[in-house]
Records
---
Amino acid sequence: MRYQNITKGTFLARPNRFIAHVLVDGETVVCHVKNTGRCAELLRPGVPVYLEKAQNPARKTAFDLIAVEKGDLLINMDAQAPNRVFAEWAAEGKFLPEVQVIQPEYRYGDSRLDFVLTTPRGLHLVEVKGVTLEEGGHARFPDAPTERGVRHLGELERAAAAGLAATAFFVIQMEGMKDFAPNDATHPAFGEALRHAAANGVRVEAWECAVTPESLRIVRPVKTLL
């Protein structure tokens, strides 16, 4: 997936979850943050960030904040990007070569899962999670407690028990990771739910991405530690 009209700036502050103040060409601009998570380890005053110019000139915020530099890492932090990049990747047959139809926003049980893929062998449910937390070259999820994420894993597990294929797919929005694991220190219930789901028929996959300020592309699997 690609972005258009990218501008580099310097992060100044984040008054709330939805907006950030960024210095661009000597002027402070108000940007929409395309990630409502904490991202406290990423958005620190003075770090370089990348903005996409909004297509609607009437919008209150002229830019979207989509990526940030963390030392030598460039991390895409657009919360909408993982689903978009997975859909493109799956449409190319990279996830399942025999996929026939890819349907987003599939209602199953009490949850709306990200995708259902139709294959000759039946339906394959997929819940996609974007990963932006990195600790010493190790990718971790989540960066904050997510009861919704625990619920989604439960639905995947119930789907697997009913005979459907089910996958929890983690899109690591950076490159060069040593491994991926649930962030038990932040949300032990999520790690417990992920391990339980994996032991009961749910596939768990983590793939890292090649990231540029203008693009995001799924490139390779990362070893998963459960």
Note: The radius of gyration is 18 Å.
---
Amino acid sequence: MEVCAAAGRAPLDVVRAFLAAGVRLIQLRAKLLAGGPFLDLALAAVAEADAAGAAIVVNDRADIALLARAPGLHVGQDDLTPADARRVVGPDTWLGLSTHTEEQWTGALGAPISYLAIGPVFGTRT
């Protein structure tokens, strides 16, 4: 979201452009967007993705993922625990977890997650 704003692009327009280019998995990441607008964006993005045969993964917000019926949720070390996130989104939603150290990814191996991300590859302001 913040990257889209910095580039002068509407997030939903970026989602549509990615879908038109053949992208089939998009992560919605909006660290600074309030819940209501984030839900509106997620609902629209999930609808666009569904129509294109693609999927949306919501970053950080289990509530938004659930309400928007997104097929995926991705959480980080400072978000809900994987067990808590899984309780919110249920057993069928993909659940990813970011890790940054060997200790974190080793500890995540027993968590109720679908996939594990290792990073960061480069630093960001968020």
Note: The mean pLDDT is 94.
